[in-house]
Design a protein that fits this description.
Layout lengths: L17 H15 L3 E5 L3 H4 L1 H8 L3 E5 L9 H13 L7 H14 L6 H4 L2
Parallel strand pairs: 1-2
Length: about 120
Amino acid sequence: MTEFGETTVLECGGSFTGEVTIHFLQHLQAEFGEKLVVLLDQATYFTAKAVKNFAADEPIELVYFPTGSPDLNPTEEYWRQLKLALGNRYFATCEEIRSALWPALETISPPEVYQYLCP
């Protein structure tokens, strides 16, 4: 999410890895411009050496939240809202999940990033 509330979604199949993180960072650059500050948690796929090497060669600054601080991470608010929208439902197929996911994402109210950065 940008300072103006703009968001983007990149659908990725399989497990999230360092390579997927690099693909995600490239997607962010294509959507919002090459020069970025990206806030990430301490997941291994975000802290992987390949990710840090990629960012070192790009105009991207990676800022990591302290370990065990979900209250500082606006992504956790997205997850909370998504769980409210999709929780306690049975999906028989991946296609059913995809069909429900996109409309649910459109109902999410992006949290104000500044409330996380400047409490």
